[in-house]
Design goal:
By secondary structure, the protein is an alpha/beta fold. It has a single domain, classed as Rossmann fold (3-Layer(aba) Sandwich), CATH 3.40.50.150. Helix content is 45%, strand content 22%. It has 9 helices and 9 strands. Helix 2 packs antiparallel against helix 7 and helix 7 runs antiparallel to helix 8.
């Protein structure tokens, strides 16, 4: 691990296996997603064997979007979650800090003839939306890339109405014996190799694999969600915790 670059306050945050200045992480994560945007959905299919589609279907079933509900899909990038929720009649704002990812999503929406989505470039830590604006807040495979996760959770709580629901799906380490070892080899060796072969970008996918390892385990992340003010929190583990659906309510 390299020596950590420190901000004037001495704070560092994780960027994969490195500890870096918060501003540096924000810039480097932006560069990663600008690099992978055009191949992002192809790589998701390749890396998960298409299972990410089933996970996302399952996630949206848990959210239960209703016609006319106002939903913020944060880190929504290429639109996978928003398209599913819009099909249920919800009014969805797709937000992402990376304009390149949003551009891919807009193009995909046009190709599919999906109208009515609003696309907004937003930093999850400093949303421009008003207090108590949304019925639901969703974030899928995005929160581990946020520089200050606690600030993003606080903002999610702020923009939700009372009775609003928070849903997050994120990767983590798995505790299944046997599968854990296979998963380690896959994420550390095969993911970067696939990134190189398919997207011509080995380093970005090496970071994405490392960021999963640095992300809090499900129980730890649930505690962070509670600390942000959410009640009735729940964790639904998939593949022994390799993928987790977190939820909570603003009451």
């Amino acid at each position: 691990m390299s020596d950590p670059a420190r901000s004037p306050s001495g704070e560092t945050v994780s960027f994969g296996y490195e500890d870096v200045d918060p501003t540096e992480k924000t810039a480097r994560v932006g560069a990663v997603f600008s690099s992978v945007a055009s191949k992002y959905d192809i790589m998701n299919d390749a890396m998960s064997g298409g299972m990410h589609r089933l996970w996302k279907d399952r996630f949206v079933r848990r959210v239960k979007p209703q016609p006319g509900e106002s939903i913020l899909d944060m880190a929504g990038g290429t639109g996978d979650i928003a398209f599913r929720m819009a099909d249920c009649g919800a009014d969805v704002i797709v937000s992402d800090i990376n304009q390149d990812m949003l551009d891919v999503g807009v193009e995909r929406a046009m190709e599919r003839g999906i109208d009515g989505l609003v696309w907004s470039c937003q930093n999850a830590e400093e949303l421009t939306f008003t207090d108590r604006q949304f019925d639901a807040y969703t974030i899928v495979f995005g929160i581990r890339n946020v520089t200050h996760i606690d600030k993003a959770l606080a903002e999610a709580h702020r923009v939700l109405k009372y009775g609003g629901r928070f849903y997050c799906m994120e990767f983590s380490g798995t505790d299944w014996p046997g599968f854990r070892e296979v998963y380690d080899v896959y994420s550390h060796r095969l993911m970067p190799l696939m990134g190189k072969l398919i997207a011509n970008d080995e380093e970005s996918y090496r970071y994405l694999a490392e960021s999963i390892r640095r992300f809090p385990r499900p129980v730890e992340f649930e505690a962070m969600i509670k600390a942000a003010g959410f009640a009735q929190t729940r964790v639904e583990m998939i593949l022994g915790g390799a993928v987790n659906i977190h939820s909570g309510w603003k009451v």
